[in-house]
Design brief:
By secondary structure, the protein is α+β, with helices and mostly antiparallel strands. 27% of the residues lie in helices and 21% in strands. A 6-stranded mixed beta sheet has the order 1-5-6-4-3-2, with helices on both faces. The longest helix has 13 residues. It is a lipid-anchor. This is Protein kinase domain-containing protein.
Length: 161
């Protein structure tokens, strides 16, 4: 049996501070109209060694509410562990999209949201749905994806389509 001797300062406080700093980097959609409009996910990607060429568009909550007719029940496509997905049409481009509204009381926090935005913005593959943009307005967290009209992955895996 071996013994491990620990000495020095605890890293718990430093790690908590680092996590808090990371979570504070998610800009709200309204922040883009403030003094520093360049503070966004693109900046974080370049800090982390990414190319900084993220095509994710920043939407306001108002834009996405309009696209989904105020998140009406007849626009609801499905519901999962992290929130609901609605079908919508963007007024600016007339594009049909799927809008994932994350549950504000759910398990996915700011950090997971930021990671999802960064990863899906940088990854492009024929088998992955493309992320068009996101909204981080107040406590609202939404992801905007291209709309795939042929049902869900679950439907295809279980042979329901």
């Amino acid at each position: 049996m071996g013994w491990l001797i620990c000495s020095g300062k605890s890293k718990k406080k430093a790690k908590k501070k680092q996590n808090k700093k990371f979570e504070d980097q998610i800009p709200s959609s309204s922040d883009r109209f403030k003094v520093n409009p360049s503070l966004d996910v693109k900046k974080e990607a370049s800090k982390d060694g990414g190319s900084g060429h993220i095509a994710a568009h920043i939407f306001t909550f108002r834009e996405l509410a309009a696209a989904t007719k105020n998140f009406r029940a007849d626009c609801l496509l499905g519901e999962g562990g992290f929130g609901r997905v609605y079908k919508g049409r963007l007024e600016s481009t007339n594009q049909v999209v799927a809008i994932k509204q994350l549950d504000r009381n759910g398990l996915q926090g700011n950090r997971e949201f930021l990671v999802e935005v960064l990863m899906l913005s940088l990854l492009h593959h024929p088998n992955l749905v493309n992320l068009i943009g996101y909204c981080a307005d107040g406590d609202q967290r939404l992801l905007v994806y291209e709309y795939m009209p042929l049902g869900s992955l679950e439907d295809h895996l279980l042979g329901m389509c």
